[in-house]
Design brief:
The chain is an all-alpha fold and 108 residues long. It has 2 domains: 37 residues, no CATH class; 45 residues, no CATH class. The longest helix is centred in the last third of the chain and has 23 residues. The chain is extended. The N and C termini lie far apart (58 Å).
Length: 108
């Protein structure tokens, strides 16, 4: 039996969706109503559950190195857009939150 699945690209190239995709155009009012209907039917935790399943499948197909590649690409893009000082600002904010969390955990 022949495997009909295409081979995954090893790089972080743009992937195009098939032209025969069913459903409304992403971002349209019809798509938003569809998303709201799914949320009402299955609850907001449904999205978390399917996201974890999808992430697990991507890791199985592409390996954990894929996440390092897309993380590096995203970081470079953010650095170009926001500048180096951005990381200093968010690091300080995160550090403040981290110290508060650690203090709460130590006292329990």
């Amino acid at each position: 039996m022949e495997n009909s699945e295409p081979e995954p690209n090893q790089g972080t190239q743009n992937h195009q969706m098939p032209k025969n995709k069913r459903g409304p155009v992403p971002g349209s009012q019809k798509a938003k109503r569809g998303g709201q209907a799914v949320r009402e039917k299955y609850g907001p935790e449904f999205y978390s559950k399917i996201g974890k399943i999808g992430g697990k499948k991507v890791k199985e197909k592409r390996g954990s190195q894929f996440y390092a590649q897309i993380g590096k690409k995203g970081g470079e893009s953010t650095k170009l857009r926001q500048g180096s000082a951005f990381y200093s600002r968010i690091g300080k904010k995160g550090g403040k939150h981290g110290r508060v969390s650690a203090a709460i955990i130590k006292h329990d």
